[in-house]
Amino acid sequence: MTDSSNLENLQPDQIFDGGDLDCGSGLILLIRENMLKVHEGGVLEMRSREPTVGVDLPPWCRMVGHEYLGLLQTPKYVRYFMRRNISGKDDSQELQKDMERARSYEWRLRTRSTGHLKSTVYCRNFSFDVGQPASFEEKDPYPSAVEFLLGALSASLSTGFATEVARAGLEVDDIEITTKGRLENALALLGDENGEPVFSNIEIKCFASTFEDEKQVRKIWEQAVARSPIAATLRCAVEIKISFSVV
Predict the structure, then answer these.
(1) Which of 32, 67, 185, 202 suits a disulfide with 195, CB 3.0-4.6 Å?
(2) Given a cut of 60, is residue 76 above it in pLDDT?
(3) How many CB atoms lie within 10 A of CB 20?
(4) Can you say whether the dihedral through the CA atoms of 148, 163, 42, 99 is positive or negative?
(5) Both 114 and 40 in a single domain?
(6) d(Cα 212, Cα 232) in Å, to the nearest integer?
């Protein structure tokens, strides 16, 4: 590993910002993609705000044959340095394999009825309890399925926006999203009327606290919306009104 004084004087051949992505959420694919822009024996600098990268990156470099040179701490992010392997290994093939795995990845969950108006969902190393399909009460032991759906939508936008902002090197102090949803016919859910209990509309309002250029921040928000699989899917079925404000 190179000492910090030598790293400070090192001139990388390629620099990219990984934002707050961790190695399991697409960062490795981005590292491979940027490493291809570096000649064999050249140096890639990756900037990250995710603390787990410091643990996961060195063994990954050893596994694939790149040399992990070390890191430098800065107030805003950590600078990681890697030297591209000179073994003649074709990194482009590994990148294509990673991209193909990402394209064909399938998320799997298992759900069981575990009590009165309660089901438990199991996925990866998580489990969470879900209440009835929809609830009109002020309080319940568990969130309803409708609330999980709207929560997944707003969380995908909030986290996706924060990640894109970090990758762009911008400072956003706070991100808050309010979400509202209305059913076409809530009585159809209860079986009291004929009809479809589909959403008639969903309203999303995002508030971002920042001193950065509003046009640039808004553009990043629009990218986050476009890249959200939840938003993209729901938009095929229901009108989603989306507004964005810098405060």
Answers:
(1) 185
(2) yes
(3) 19
(4) positive
(5) no
(6) 27
Considering its fold, how many domains does the chain have in total?
3
Alpha carbon distance 25, 159 (integer Å): 12
Domain harbouring 56, CATH code: 3.30.110.40
- Residue of 162 and 5 predicted with greater confidence: 162
Q: Residue 55 — φ and ψ, nearest 5°?
A: -85, -40
> pLDDT of 161-218, one tens digit each?
999 998 888 999 999 999 999 999 988 888 888 888 999 999 999 999 999 999 999 9
Residue 75 and residue 19 in one domain: yes
Q: Is 21 in the same domain as 65?
A: yes
Whether 175 contacts 204, CB under 8 Å: no
The widest CA-to-CA distance across the chain, in whole angstroms, is 73
What length is written for the chain? 247
Nearest-angstrom CA–CA distance, 73 and 71 = 7
- Over pLDDT 70: what percentage of the chain? 96
Do 58 and 83 share a domain, yes or no?
yes
Q: Which domain holds residue 242?
A: 144-246
H/E stretch holding 182: strand 174-183
